[in-house]
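Support request from a user on the community tier.

User writes: "When I paste my structure tokens into the form, the page sometimes reloads and wipes my input. The last time it worked, I copied everything first. Here is what I submitted, just in case something in the input itself triggers the reload:"
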């Protein structure tokens, strides 16, 4: 890629518009509070009859302090006792949920996200492990990952996580530069990240991901290059390098950031390009939007073999699993339905006290949604579309079904993002920087302009 030339910047100016990240389709803004309980009941009935393996997500919402850039659903508190109460309610939720699944359905994937899962102390982590074992059956080869805030993770936390079966860790790093850390109110000396990484490996949690963010205040190309140089020395297996999503209308704490300190769009793009151009020399492949993995990692292998998928945790080799999500605000994902729990902690607790699952919103996938979801996930995960393959898989004629979209793609082809061929289309290396924009062509909800302000910009 001959990058950072004026023509690439022109593309960024043209395509840097608000758009979804497509961890789901329909996306969360289309979920509705107006639903009929029978839809849920039908979903639970189907679940009770299926012994297919499952994925379990548990949201731990608490954090000790606020990072000003944060876009997650969290509660800031220093009171660790709130973790005990939350676990009481997770237990109630597990009891109700376990009644809706087949007794032989095993957990093949577990993920603790947040907030900050390591807000829980080691004893609370052990209790959570017991609760999972009491209510679900675990596959012998479970992929068990935990999001870790290195600032709140002691060796005892790691020992407890290992004891309950954790075998993967994702560390929030964001940026190693002190000025950037001050600007975002997240002080995390590099030594802390280094120490936690070493302890994870010492205790046999060997699959490690680092989350970085580009586009933060006080970042510039040179500071970001140094961040990359720093983190590469710790040789994590994967990097997620996210574009900072500035949506202060939805995340009011982001208003605390000084907008004058944000890098320019060319600088921000330069950071992504730098990562894409330099990480391969350190043995990492560019998986797609935001993600890099060691060439030997299963994500890189899945990309090469065309089996890569995407879900709420980003790219995955297990995204086809039905996801059961527990905790406030979490989103379960079945073949026909997305189900989101209440985002308000007291309502989440009160609903469970009344013996009901704390469902707040759902999205039922129509036949058309399923078709579009498959195409969008293909765009996000594969880099090419074969009309006949998709037509066969979805029992449609791709050319007829997406006649208008194919017309729209001609403009993206003229801009060099993809190449239309008689059998389909191939996404170019430059087009891989604009996967969201290509996917957006197939998103029929985007015509409803009222949703657009809910998304971050695509670059
Ligand atoms: S970035 Fe992570 S640790 Fe910081 S406030 Fe958000 S969820 Fe909590």
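"...and here is what came back when it finally went through:"
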């Amino acid at each position: 890629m001959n990058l950072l030339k004026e023509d690439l910047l022109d593309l960024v100016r043209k395509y840097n518009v608000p758009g979804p990240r497509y961890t789901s389709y329909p996306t969360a803004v289309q979920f509705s509070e107006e639903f009929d309980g029978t839809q849920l009941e039908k979903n639970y009935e189907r679940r009770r009859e299926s012994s297919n393996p499952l994925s379990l997500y548990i949201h731990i919402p608490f954090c000790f302090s606020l990072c000003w850039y944060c876009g997650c659903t969290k509660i800031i508190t220093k009171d660790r006792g709130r973790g005990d109460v939350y676990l009481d309610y997770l237990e109630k939720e597990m009891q109700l949920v376990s009644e809706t699944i087949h007794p032989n359905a095993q957990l093949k994937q577990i993920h603790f996200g947040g907030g900050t899962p390591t807000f829980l102390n080691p004893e609370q982590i052990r209790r959570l492990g017991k609760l999972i074992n009491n209510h679900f059956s675990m596959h012998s080869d479970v992929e068990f990952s935990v999001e870790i805030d290195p600032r709140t993770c002691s060796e005892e936390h790691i020992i407890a996580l290992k004891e309950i079966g954790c075998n993967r860790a994702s560390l929030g790093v964001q940026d190693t530069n002190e000025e950037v850390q001050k600007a975002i109110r997240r002080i995390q000396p590099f030594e802390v990240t280094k120490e936690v990484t070493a302890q994870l490996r010492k205790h046999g949690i060997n699959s490690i991901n680092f989350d970085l963010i580009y586009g933060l205040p006080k970042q510039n190309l040179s500071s970001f290059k140094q961040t990359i140089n720093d983190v590469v020395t710790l040789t994590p297996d994967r990097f997620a390098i996210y574009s900072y999503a500035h949506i202060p209308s939805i995340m009011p704490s982001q208003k605390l950031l000084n907008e004058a300190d944000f890098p320019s769009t060319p600088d921000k793009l330069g950071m992504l390009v730098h990562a894409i151009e330099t990480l391969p020399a350190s043995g990492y492949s560019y998986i797609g939007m935001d993600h890099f993995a060691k060439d030997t990692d299963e994500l890189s292998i899945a990309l090469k073999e065309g089996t890569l998928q995407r879900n709420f945790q980003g790219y995955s080799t297990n995204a086809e699993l039905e996801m059961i999500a527990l905790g406030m605000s979490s989103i379960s994902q079945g073949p026909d339905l997305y189900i989101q729990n209440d985002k308000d902690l007291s309502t989440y607790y009160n609903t469970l006290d009344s013996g009901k699952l704390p469902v707040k919103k759902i999205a039922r996938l129509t036949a058309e949604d399923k078709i579009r979801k498959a195409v969008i996930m293909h765009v996000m995960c594969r880099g090419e579309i074969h009309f006949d393959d998709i037509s066969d898989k979805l029992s449609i004629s791709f050319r007829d079904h997406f006649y208008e979209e194919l017309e729209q793609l001609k403009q993206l082809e003229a801009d060099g993002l993809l190449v239309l061929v008689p059998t389909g289309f191939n996404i170019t290396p430059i087009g891989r920087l604009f996967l969201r924009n290509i996917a957006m062509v197939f998103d029929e909800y985007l015509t409803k302009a009222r949703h657009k302000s809910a998304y971050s910009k695509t670059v």
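Agent notes: The reload is a front-end session timeout and is unrelated to the input. The chain has a mean pLDDT of 92. Residues 81-98 form the longest helix (18 residues). Escalated to web team.
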